[in-house]
Amino acid sequence: xxxxxxxxxxxxxxxxxxxxxxxxxxALAAVAIFALTSGQSNVTVADALxxxxxxxxxxxxxxxxxxxxxxxALTAILVGAMxxxxxxxxxxxxxxxxxxxxxxxxxxxxxxxxxxxxWLIGATSLWVTAAGAITGALLTAGLILxxxxxxxxxxxxxxxxxxxxxxxxxxxxxxxxxxxxVHDAGNALGWLVGAVTGRTWTHVTVAAAMLAVLxxxxxxxxxxxxxxxxxxxxxxxxxIPVASARGVLxxxxxxxxAGAVAVTGPIGFIALVSPALALRLTRSAGVTLIPSALxxxxxxxxxxxxxxxxxxTLQFPVGIFTAAVGAPYLxxxxxxxxxxxxx
Length: 343
Known about the structure:
Strand content: under 5%
CATH superfamily: ABC transporter involved in vitamin B12 uptake, BtuC
Number of helices: 14
CATH architecture: Orthogonal Bundle
Number of domains: 1
Structural class: mainly alpha
Order of helices and strands: EEHHHHHHHHHHHHHH
CATH class: Mainly Alpha
Number of strands: 2
CATH topology: ABC transporter involved in vitamin B12 uptake, BtuC
Helix content: over 70%
Radius of gyration: 20 Å
């Protein structure tokens, strides 16, 4: 198959992968335009695009689009991309389709870190909360790694240790909620559901800053990630510094997941499903980073729009919606394994 070599990073992209990426980008743009223009107050596409970038067009577009719809849509896009990318890296490193941050307890650890930060130091800044979420996620990931290590990471032990740590983190979060002020506990509970409602440009800035730092770092190690999928011995034979590359990629994936939790709260199944769908569409033999990020952004933004279109009595946060839709996918994975597929 003919390939294209893009940029100084030496990332080799198959034509099909590039085509899938362009299609996902076009679909994401279409859903984003729909998110900016649809609602109780319809706004033309031209006015919505101007208001989204801060060009005054007059009421009500300036407020509805510039302060409500645009931050919400961009938050969903950025957080979805962060989750998709985090899931792709973790699944590639562990060679296990279940190794997503929400399934193995990293997102729960990030949520616990954020809640403890709010409770113990009374944090009101999103940046401080994000720091607490990152700390909680890194500590949780370290404990999971220690529990799953046996002359290397054992995939089954990793999944079981992650599930166990997720329950421990949830218990710690519940305890913190019982000790918090009623007002703070109510806000924390609403945040723990996972939602993009009411997000502001501050949330967009935090998510964009973290993605801008970590995406180039991950792409720089993309070749190492693909090579390590063939096994550590083969990667070392090809000159890949396996230990350092795995450490950098793992930390980057954990920080991405923690940043997503800090901005929107825990949102399940996006990180689990996006890499698998991207692999099926691209028919790639290994990890597909950019398509996974685009798929995550498209899934989360679409899920939020579908949730908004439901009757008012049935509307619920996007975190609940993604869990309801993602659960059948997890059951399908289990069924596939029971029929002799990859376990």
